[in-house]
Amino acid sequence: MPDSFNEMYASPGAVREHYREFGDWLSRQPVDTLALKRTEADLMFRRVGITFAVYGNDAGTERLIPFDIIPRIIHAGEWSVLETGLVQRVKALNMFIHDIYHEQNIVKAGVIPAEQIFRNAQYRPEMQGISVASDIYAHIAGVDIVRAGEGEFYVLEDNLRVPSGVSYMLENRKMMMRLFPELFARHKIAPVAHYPDMLLDNLRSVAPAGVTDPTVVVMTPGMYNSAYFEHAFLAQQMGVELVEGQDLFVNDNRVYMRTTRGPKRIDVIYRRIDDDFLDPLAFRADSSLGVPGLLSVYRAGRVTLANAIGTGVADDKSIYPFVPDMIRFYLSEQPILNNVPTYQCRKPEELAFTLAHLPDLVVKEVHGAGGYGMLVGPASTAAEIEAFRQRLLAKAEGYIAQPTLALSACPTFVEAGIAPRHIDLRPFVLSGKTVSMVRGGLTRVALKEGSLVVNSSQGGGTKDTWVLEK
Q: What percent of the chain has pLDDT over 70?
């Protein structure tokens, strides 16, 4: 694997211009002082309760997501390109979701094979023909960006169902301002604290037609969900109610919330529950998390769900290779941000290539998430590669493969001192009457030396992301 792009250093000892001020400061900091600051951050995060629940073998436990005190810095020019490309991409994705549930022009034009959409596990036939407010489906999108090669940005993944992580973006910034206020006096760093206000404005803008003062709620599966902290945090920051399915009910084709003062009509639900569990009358009958009859109110246009039911078909990894084609088809523009080159294992010739090069590739389940169900060829044993080969042969259509990118590295404070670690970036794009975003995002970092897996469930941590203003 080639050497990775270093965010801070153009070459050994040569600090990039936008890191120069920070680099001068960092060079003067004793290691003991940095270690104390990291310990202070861990204690404060634990006190506030910023943890995530663990599934699998350690189910029921909670962990602190490691926080790194060295920020990732992006200069204004780079951010401008990223922002323009993200807005373009999310616009096209929203148009695609509307299209497949209505006219299906992209299928009729032969751009995407029909079976890739209509046989997709995330496609919801119940959404066919339903009109949603402002034709917006992915109101909140978390798009994973990586940097490779000579510093080019690539989109690794589109998260359009219930994207998480924005609370860590906000809390990381608060922590850095608390630990190192002098750095914020020396740098012009774009703010991110107004994200909850932007989110609430965005949600209110897509209320059902005729509603002038909409009531918004955040709907959570409950305290045992891995992202429960974020659900509670965003509700509190927006000043709206955090509800569970049992707090809501349907009457006269409208959704109401139970309150001590009687029923209160709900107009917009920012739901953090998967499609399958939203309405036991329409999807999984055994779901106790949802609201019976919710889909019928949604079909009637009397409540807005953010994100919309059925958005998952657009962020499935089997659809990902077609996003550049969507941009050309719907917007008549060339994509500003490139995809990572992707082999679709459902195609015999691309499966053959993948099988022949497994030690060099990353192979992912098309429905997978969180770093699970994937093979990182260069980091795998011969036995692991052979086991994955059998999975591919058994169900080739369930996988895609990509070259192993040398993700960019950023200086990170680890046990051995300051050392480079691989990172990615998840900016959050809001779609309503307009498409907007704060200048920043969640930088995730692979804390294990050489690791390319940044997911918190796989031992990754997070950093504050600084976008410098001009």
A: 95
